[in-house]
Design a protein that fits this description.
Elements: H1 3-27, H2 30-33, H3 46-68, H4 85-95, H5 101-121, H6 124-128, H7 141-147, H8 150-169
Helix pairs in contact: 1-5, 1-8, 3-5, 3-8
Protein name: ClbS/DfsB family four-helix bundle protein
Organism: Rossellomorea marisflavi
InterPro entries: DinB/YfiT-like, DUF1706
Length: about 170
Amino acid sequence: MTGAEGKERLILKSEEAFQTLMNLITSIPPRKRKESIITDERDKNFRDVLMHLYEWHSMLERWYREGMDGDEPSMPAPGYQWRDIGALNQKIWDDYQEVPLNKAIKKVTKSHTRVMDLINRHSTEEIMTKKYVKWTKTSHLYSYFAANTYKHYEWAMRKCEKMASEMEGQP
């Protein structure tokens, strides 16, 4: 894949995956959308998944802002290391239990737009070249953007498809 294909692919896959996810959620009758499924997993409803995406968008925006300002971003979050990802994700879940679904949809839609704006600010070379920006260390912006857009949206789709399937089976 060339650099140009990489940036174009990133934008296309991110927009398509986000729209597919939102279409799935809005295809569920409004009264059922807010329901939770019975599961031992962390995420029990669409809100949980959307707020997870929103918070990871927010963390990416912070990494980006701090990194582009010349600072070393605290990744994944202050007080957490990558090995603590389970605890961090549980904290995210705990923090957003009072957010209604309609607000979660608005928040994640806005954060998606902001992340896509970050992607569009950069040339193909800036996105696709490893070590182009110092804060990505040995990686490139593409890996950070992809992980927090289309790759995360694909994970969310799998979760939401399972939830939708279970909701259809409930009275």
